[in-house]
Amino acid sequence: IERKTHVKINRKETMLAKLRKSCSCTPQKLKNFLMDFFPVLRWLPKYQCKEYIWGDVMSGLVIGIILVPQAIAYSLLAGLKPIYSLYTSFFANIIYFLMGTSRHVSVGIFSLISLMVGQVVDRELLLAGFDLNDDAPPVSGDGSLQTDNLSNTTAFNLTIAGINAECGKECYAIGIATALTFMAGVYQVLMGIFRLGFVSMYLSESVLDGFATGASLTILTAQVKYLIGIKIPRSQGHGMLVITWINIFRNISQANLCDVITSAICIVVLVTAKELGDRYKHKLKFPLPTELVVIVVATLVSHYGKLNEVYASSVSGAIPTGFIPPKVPEFNLMLRVALDALPLAIVSFVFTVSLSEMFAKKYAYTIRANQEMFAVGFCNIIPSFFHSFATSAALAKTLVKTSTGCQTQISGVISAMVVLLVLLFLAPLFYSLQKCVLACIIIVSLRGALRKFRDVPARYCVNKVDTLVWVVTMSASALVSTEIGLLVGIVFSMLCIIARTQRPRTALLGQIQDTSFYEDDLEYENLATVPKVKIFRFEGPLYYANRNYFLKSLYRLTNLDPNLEAARRKKYEKKEKQHLKKGNHRTANGLGIGETTLQLVPKQIDFHALVVDCSSISFLDTTGVNTLKEIQKDYNNLNISVLLACCNPSVIDSLKRGGYFGKDFGCMQEMLFYSIHNAVLFAKDQK
Q1: What value does the mean pLDDT of the chain take?
Q2: By the 8 A CB rule, do 408 and 56 touch?
Q3: Cα-flanking dihedrals φ and ψ of residue 156, to 5°?
Q4: CB atoms inside a 10 Å sphere around CB 216
Q5: How much is the pLDDT for 71?
Q6: Residue 304: how many CB atoms within 10 A of its CB?
Q7: Domain boundaries in the chain?
Q8: What would be the CATH architecture of the domain defined by 506-571+603-685?
Q9: Using an 8 Å Cβ cutoff, are 393 and 211 in contact?
Q10: What pTM value is reported for the model?
Q11: Is 326 helix (H, G, I), strand (E, B) or coil?
Q12: How far are the Cα atoms of 109, 143, 454 from residue 187, in angstroms, in the given order?
């Protein structure tokens, strides 16, 4: 087979041509740029109103109804007031409507992202000297924003943060959150500009599932104190999960009976409704708004039963109406959280793109991953000026959107209008809502992630290594911290891949009788051994990290180390020469000189050709080429020929460049074969 001659591409000229093309500006190019950057300009003029509007309105209303209680609940995770979660939900839906390429994903608050934001906020509040206890009596609600109570307006030097000294706990907390969100958005936009979307490839399904499950355990742990109504400090740093549980058991005697009873009732109602909804979802036109019903009923009971005044049950407090004037995130705060924003940006982007691709494939359309990165980046940058925190696509809400007939992102605008209605008029009505009810909503929403524990046996049967990656990532995310857990998961999964390539499977092959095919003689029965020929398969790339393993496996399976055999022969010849110089015609073994030649060929060498099956060798580095040259030389010294079979073109090119076939490639046809059978036939014909 003759190789094609490829024309060499002048990369410099190609890059210059692309640069000239990208830098040129024409009206048509400007129009295309705007339509690419704002995909809504492409699909909205083609919107089929009669066909799509009912499904979009229905799904938008349902998601809006779900968003309101979730936004209020997830504010507990972020360590912020509920109003900021509502801002986040509103702006994220509007911006993604303009810039997103997915028709179905729901972008907004997400439990894991809220948790990551909350951990950074808590850490910075603690470093600034604030009390992390958020169970202080709420301020009286008059519909306007107010500062925290006196314990959290500690006057201290805030010059390091670049903001005025009158800023209290709430002001400082949202300042940290917006700075973190802005930096995460900047990272995502920069990743889009430099086309760094490939970073998501290093987050395998096992890593993402393990991270989500570990973070879910952390979320659950953080909500237990609200469930039972105890007042314990919010743990910070590594080992937060263990420390929190220790504090819970130490203070379990202080549990608020009213909160415990309320939590039990809410969990039973929510779980029952979810299970019934899952069982009869094919009969329901849209999911039951259980969270909203629970919140409305619980708020009414708490208000008219005066649960806060009589039983000291912790409530949400005043939620102001309207919008706060926009404010530029503080630059000095950005410097403090710049490192924390990186994992937040990556996780937010990966979840958004993976969900977008999943639903695009399901409904037969395409998305642009790079534009998705821009969309989610600006969903963080722009809202950060309006007192919002980081966002991402959420699987649960996206599934609800698709099940209720969503066709386009018009549904996101409808959801934003529902949130706007709450922001402008209805927010103060949630003053008496108990925090334990919000904690119940959060915990029940974790059902999907926590159910991953049931899948461990099935996952283990499919792939043990992936299961180990899941366990390590989940454990690190739960027991250390979410950011460290994500990093540990990525590093560990890469180490598993490296370990697989370092010690791949090796085998000697036998011939399937009456065929020209060969397989592993340890895995299959009734294989015929090829006389005087050994066929060795190495199922992995050959590079510097597995060179020694390749040689050891080859020597072990062929039962011959050519270096040891050559050394033994040299030693034997040296002894023979010494005997001959002394005039003794008997050898060291007591044999005649004529019989000595027989001793130079050991009995264990039962082959004269070694065929290396290279079909599984994906690439060779310099060390790999030198290793093949080394075994060729060593075995040739023992009159054993080394033949390569089934090499891919890149391996052949590496061998040519490394001089394996000599300078003029004259011996190439006698050393390289396109099938194992051809190599075996050639070896049998050799003398």
Answers
A1: 86
A2: yes
A3: -150, 170
A4: 26
A5: 86
A6: 9
A7: 49-132+168-228+245-499, 506-571+603-685
A8: 2-Layer Sandwich (3.30)
A9: no
A10: 0.80
A11: coil
A12: 19, 36, 36
Burial class (CB in 10 A: 0-12, 13-18, 19+), 23: exposed
Q: For residues 250 and 244, what is the distance between their CA atoms, to the nearest angstrom?
A: 10
Q: Given the DSSP bridges, would you call strands 672-673 and 641-645 parallel, antiparallel or unpaired?
A: parallel
Count of Cβ atoms closer than 10 Å to residue 239 Cβ: 14
Whole-angstrom Cα distance, residue 180 to residue 338? 7
Give the pLDDT confidence of 223-279 residue by residue, as tens digits: 899 899 888 877 777 888 899 999 999 999 999 999 999 999 999 999 998 888 878
∠ CA 24-26-28, nearest 5°, is 130
The phi, psi pair for 192, rounded to 5°, reads -70, -40
- d(CA 199, CA 221) in angstroms, rounded, equals 31
* Torsion angle of the four alpha carbons 507, 508, 513, 518, in this order, in degrees rounded to the nearest 10: 60
518: three-class secondary structure by DSSP? strand
How far is Cα 324 from Cα 100, in angstroms, rounded to an integer? 26
The tens digit of pLDDT for each residue in 320-349 reads: 888 999 999 999 999 999 999 999 999 999
Kindly report the backbone phi and psi dihedral angles of residue 294, in degrees, each rounded to the nearest multiple of 5, phi listed first. -60, -45
Q: Indicate the DSSP class of residue 143.
A: S
* Location of structure tokens 């105890």: 230
Provide the token pair at 195.
Answer: 């086309």
Q: What are phi and psi of 673, to 5 degrees?
A: -135, 150
Neighbours of 211 (CB within 10 A): 30
What the block records as the tokens of 373 is 């990165």
Contact predicate 422/87, CB 8 Å: no
